[in-house]
Amino acid sequence: MPSEITALHRELDDSFTPEQIEEQEENFYMCKAEEEDAYNESLELDELKKKDQDEEMLEFFLNSGEVHFQYDEDFIAEIKLRELLSKAGIRIPSYQLASPVKFNPTLL
Predict the structure, then answer these.
(1) Residues 51, 2: one domain?
(2) To which H or E segment does residue 67 belong?
(3) Those residues with Cβ within 8 angstroms of residue 21's Cβ, 6 or more apart along the chain or in another chain
(4) What pLDDT was estimated at residue 100?
(5) pTM above 0.90?
(6) Are residues 55 and 73 in the same domain?
(7) Are 45 and 67 in contact (CB under 8 A)?
(8) How does residue 40 score in pLDDT terms, banded at 50, 70 and 90?
(9) Over the range 70-81, which residues count as b (16 or more CB within 10 Å of their CB) and which as e?
(10) For residue 15, which of 35, 67, 88, 106 sits 20 to 30 Å off, Cα-Cα?
């Protein structure tokens, strides 16, 4: 929004007609809207680029064997134990169990 001083100056200046003042204000608002659209678009492009980079990195680690997902027997047994404890109504604090139940990749 043009400052009040600028707006008053334009209104008091005889060299600008009211139509010209209105046109200048419209141009100002259009420029601001275009700047905001361009900024929002650049943010969206940055997010897409970051997402692509993250996916490429994960794919690289998976293909190179540096990351694998943990499905070992101990983990599965602990999940089954927790299910049985839950069905039996037995509450055990999670810090007393062997590992947190999460689906996390393991970096080698």
Answers:
(1) yes
(2) strand 67-69
(3) 7, 10, 11
(4) 55
(5) no
(6) no
(7) no
(8) very high
(9) eeeeeeeebeee
(10) 35
* DSSP character at residue 89: T
Position 64, amino acid: S
Beta bridge partners of 105: 69
How high is the pLDDT of residue 54?
A: 86
**What band does 38 get if pLDDT is binned at 50, 70 and 90?**
very high
Q: Which domain holds residue 47?
A: 1-64
- 43 half-sphere exposure, CB direction, 13 A CA radius: 6
Residue type, 104: N
- Alpha helices, H only, the chain: 4-12, 18-64, 73-88
Q: What would the pLDDT profile of 67-83 be if each residue is shown by its tens digit?
A: 656 666 766 777 788 88
Alpha-carbon span 96 to 90, nearest angstrom? 13
Instruction: For residue 1, give both structure tokens.
Output: 């929004």
